Amino acid sequence: MWHYLTSEELLASISDALKAIDGVAKAAGERAGGTMDIAMRVSEINNKSNDLYFK
After folding, report:
1. How far is the C-alpha of 17 from the C-alpha of 9, rounded, in Å?
2. Which residues have C-beta within 8 Å of that of residue 5, sequence separation ≥ 6?
3. In the chain, N or C: fewer CB atoms in 10 Å?
């Protein structure tokens, strides 16, 4: 049996879905930022190692 949504129910459902999507996007962005921090640190260590090696 079909249940037809009222406009308020539909709006609430869409709002909940958008909140969930936003949460996933924020979490993914935070992980990406952490990955970039690690990559930058590895690059700095590599540069320092090269400076020491080639002196």
Report:
1. 12
2. 13
3. N
24: tokens are: 């996933």
Q: What is the pTM of this model?
A: 0.54
> What are 2-55's pLDDT values in tens digits?
778 788 888 888 989 999 998 888 888 877 777 788 888 889 888 888 887 776
Angular region, 5: left φ>0, alpha ψ -120 to 50, beta rest: beta
Under 8 Å between Cβ of 37 and 29: no
DSSP class of residue 14 equals H
Torsion of CA 46, 47, 51, 52, to 10 degrees: -30
| CA dist., res. 50 & res. 9, Å (int) | 61
